[in-house]
């Protein structure tokens, strides 16, 4: 007889883990071992409830052994806004009470859910195992829920959007009332545990008292759509912050002189508040900023920031701000994207900025430049050589450079076939920017960098265009692996 080797429990457990939900459901019915282990695998992925049918299916699956399976639920997302029958509601309450290892809770329609199902809100608030809480469309009921929550949260994400996407404006509160809803005092019960906070549409008022609550474990702060955030309250409350992301709606403001002036005035205020005699100073451990240039400018941070990634494409309107921001940040890594102004600006082009002493420690640069119609007369080759000359003065170890030719000789507003378009592209004369990019010696550029920078271990240059003539050159030395990146790897590559 052939020898039959039995599968041990570890192998069976891996089979369940690698199976999809439908397969796991079948395995559950096959033997006692899979009855529990496959159920664990089914519930390992997030559980999402959107309607009464989802609720009944979940309750039916968790009911055996007095809801014993409920303890395997780790992530629960509630998007239930329709009415539940008393039976389903009671069953879900019992089920939630048995989710004794639930760690991550997401509520899509915070106010509507808590108003429609207050008993479910109470059941969730009574849990003690939650670590991450996400609530969208938060409001006053969410505040009550936070006060009742018994878990030691480490991550909180709250989006304050009302019927017109501005919950705070709908409340018609003055600054004193608003200040009590600032994240620092509102979340003070988690001073010792909170590590990550995402504030979305969280209006924090222009007049704030000096908050005394300190969150020593806070490492990551993300601020979205807070028009003019004040830096000092965050610096004082989160002294050990390592990662900051800010994304408001100020990118468009740079087009208008009065809005630019307001950004400038808010920056001055933030700097003054930090440097005041009773001010908090600046962050001492901030390692990373991801967000728009305008937001970092108005925050007025005076600290060094090793990793800076700008999330919005820049034009000539941004470059004066860029120079001022980088003078303070003095990054080791910079990720920036923009149009030809980054190469062509008369006083604040990147080749000029990179020669400033405030960028003397730059080790890694990710740069993507789009050559558009307004810079069709630019000598791209000469500008790139100037960039290379500036880079040669730095302790650069890693480079990602991408030049994209966006010039299109076909007339706009006309319908044409693909063949007609191809003929026009083939026959139209090259603009100066196109011809100088086409003739630019990328090999000489790479050799020059390698000769001038013994520190360079990893460099990649992509030239996309003009008109389909793409080129790529790369340098990877035997010491490339010695460049150890910290933080998000996406910061070191093109978006």
Question: Top keywords for this entry?
Answer:
single chain; 495 residues; alpha/beta; 15-stranded mixed sheet; 22 helices; 15 strands; globular; disordered N terminus; LRR_dom_sf; F-box domain-containing protein
Q: Radius of gyration from the CA trace? A: 28 Å
How would you classify the helix and strand content by structural class? alpha/beta
Helicity level, as a percent range?
25-40%
Strand order of the largest sheet: 1-2-3-4-5-6-7-8-9-10-11-12-13-14-15
Q: What count of helical segments does DSSP give? A: 22
Q: Based on DSSP secondary structure assignment, what is the total number of beta strands?
A: 15
What's the average pLDDT? 86
- The termini sit apart by 60 Å
- Main beta sheet: 15 strands, mixed
DSSP strand (E) fraction?
15-25%
Enumerate the spans where pLDDT stays under 50 for 5 or more consecutive residues: 1-5
Shape: globular
Protein name: F-box domain-containing protein
InterPro entries: LRR_dom_sf (IPR032675)
């Amino acid at each position: 007889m052939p020898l039959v080797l039995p599968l041990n429990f570890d192998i069976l457990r891996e089979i369940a883990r690698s199976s999809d939900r439908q397969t796991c459901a079948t395995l559950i019915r096959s033997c006692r071992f899979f009855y529990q282990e496959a159920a664990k695998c089914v519930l390992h992925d997030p559980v999402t409830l959107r309607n009464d049918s989802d609720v009944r299916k979940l309750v039916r699956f968790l009911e055996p052994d007095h809801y014993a399976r409920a303890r395997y639920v780790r992530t629960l997302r509630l998007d239930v806004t329709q009415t539940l029958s008393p039976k389903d509601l009671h069953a879900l309450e019992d089920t939630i009470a048995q989710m004794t290892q639930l760690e991550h809770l997401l509520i899509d329609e915070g106010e509507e859910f808590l108003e429609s199902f207050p008993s479910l809100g109470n059941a969730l608030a009574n849990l003690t195992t939650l670590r991450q809480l996400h609530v969208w469309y938060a409001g006053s009921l969410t505040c009550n829920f936070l006060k009742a929550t018994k878990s030691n949260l480490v991550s909180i994400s709250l989006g304050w959007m009302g019927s017109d996407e501005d919950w705070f404006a709908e409340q018609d509160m003055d600054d004193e009332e608003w200040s009590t809803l600032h994240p620092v005092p509102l979340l003070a019960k988690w001073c010792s545990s909170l590590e990550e906070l995402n504030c979305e549409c969280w209006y924090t008022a222009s007049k704030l008292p000096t908050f005394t609550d300190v969150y020593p474990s806070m490492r990551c702060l993300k601020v979205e759509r807070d028009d003019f955030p004040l830096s000092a309250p965050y610096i004082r409350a989160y002294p050990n912050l390592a990662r900051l992301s800010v994304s408001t709606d100020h990118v468009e403001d740079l087009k208008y002189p009065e809005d630019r002036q307001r950004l400038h005035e808010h920056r001055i205020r933030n700097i003054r508040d930090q440097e005041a005699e009773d001010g908090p100073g600046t962050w001492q451990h901030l390692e990373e900023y991801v967000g728009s240039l305008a937001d970092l400018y108005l925050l007025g941070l005076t600290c060094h920031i090793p990793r800076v990634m700008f999330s919005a494409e820049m034009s000539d309107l941004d470059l004066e701000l860029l120079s001022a921001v980088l003078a303070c940040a003095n990054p080791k890594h910079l990720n920036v994207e923009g149009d030809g102004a980054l190469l062509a600006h008369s006083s604040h082009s990147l080749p000029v900025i990179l020669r400033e002493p405030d960028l003397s420690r730059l080790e890694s640069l990710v740069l993507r430049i789009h050559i558009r119609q307004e810079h069709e007369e630019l000598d791209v080759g000469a500008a790139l050589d100037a960039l290379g000359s500036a880079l040669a003065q730095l302790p650069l170890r890693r480079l990602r450079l991408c030049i994209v030719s966006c010039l299109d000789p076909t007339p706009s507003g006309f319908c044409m076939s693909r063949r007609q378009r191809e003929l026009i592209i083939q026959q139209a004369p090259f603009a100066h920017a196109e011809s100088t990019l086409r003739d630019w010696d990328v090999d000489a550029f790479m050799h020059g960098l390698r000769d001038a920078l013994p520190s360079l271990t990893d460099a990649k240059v992509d030239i996309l265009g003009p008109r389909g003539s793409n080129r790529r050159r790369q340098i990877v030395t035997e010491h490339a692996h010695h460049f150890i990146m910290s933080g998000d790897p996406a910061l070191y590559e093109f978006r």
